[in-house]
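S1.2 Input.
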Amino acid sequence: MQLIARNGLEYIRAYLETAESWTRVQGLSKSGKLLMCCCDHPAKATRSPRGLRHFAHMPGSACSVGSQESEAHLRLKIEALTVAHELGFDAIAEYDRGTIRPDVEVVQRGTKKNVAIEIQLSRQTGYTTNERTSARAAQNLDTVWFFGNKRDFDDAPKDQRYVYPVRLPSGDIEFQIDVLRKKLSAFLRGVIVFDDLSNLAKVPFTVIGYDFPCGGCGRDWYRTSYAGLYPNRIRGDLHPVAVPLASLGDPAEALKTLAERTGKATGRVAPGGMGLLCPHCGTAPEAEFITPEVALRAPARNISGHRDMRRFSGLKPGWWWRRNPVADEHWSDAEWAAVIEQGINAIKTERQRIAREKRLAEERRRMEAERAEAIRSATAAELSLLTEMLDPHLGAPGTQAWLDRANDILGEKTPRAVVQQHVWACHSLPPVAHSAATALAIRMLDGSERLTEEQCGLPKKNLKQLRKSRRQTTALPASSSSLKRAWEGLCRLMFG
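S1.3 Output.
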């Protein structure tokens, strides 16, 4: 199916003919004067099953141009011509350029480039698409492809200025016509344009900051965690974005420029470029309480310059719906000050809590040290008391043996362990007069506690050691009567 035939030098466009003029064209066809533009074979003026006027080869032609076109292809081609004409563009179907014959060619006034519109409903390889696109580009034609196959659309380049691929939905031809009309109209009116992102090379930005009280020295400095970029002032479909200051290049240089402009003490870049420090004492600030969303609402009064945001925009060159630049929204100074005050008050409250916990921890450590020292001293004093009480009767070795021997009266615990437990209890519970070991020693000495046979043998053993010691240290040995009296006195003291 083709839309153009010729009668000598007259080109007849089937889509422009009326019912009356079509009768004349049919007469030319019957007389053999109407020829196909592709091969000069006699053309037949006919209609499709749906009544679309078109031209076909008379029988006997070997030319295959247009023979595979479906009625859907023809309707879409006519719709493309209609859209172009409605918008005031000159458009022609199947214009023969020698090596190429675009479905529709649109003349763009004021430019040196025309646009080839190609309808491709059947499957076509990516190689063929690129080859056909390059052939049109070689003749200074941009190409708008309308693909009916998803794979064809996926294979087509999306990042080239000279080719604009469009995916037509499969199935309903009326839906396909609506999509073609919408996309082609937007393309021809300049609503859909190609953006190579060069306009994002100079995006206005501002350094976002606020006065921050240092937790180390207490002095204020101008804390700047974010830079706000405003691509919405260039492309209306983009939104402002807050990025870390370090992502804009050398943060130290940006801070220096900001300090010169504002006259405020800005932060010092931390080693490795990770964060900012107090410029006065080098203390690292608390975690930033300003979120990127809140930072973008800061009053943008100090536009610091322009930055290339292509590398972190996530965008790629391609076709987009043109949106006029839009203004960014900001809080008033009072609203911004209220947000900052709330955040700083929260930080101060947290600092007070941390300081209070630190003081309590230090106080606990001091009290624990004092308690440990008190326990050590009290334990030593209790053991010293026991030693002073028992040494005269049991002797030093006997006293130590008694302190370290488990005692059934003390619940199979040694007196030394009982003393230690008693002292610990006195420093954590209401104190008692003496430990159980000391009370036992007192009862032993006053005779109220019955001693074991082993314990009864200790005085005699101790007396022998004492007599031996005296014999070595004095020239006057003790008489047997004095030894006997000492033994009897000790026994009376120990056993009543």
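S1.4 Remarks. The first helix runs from residue 19 to 31.
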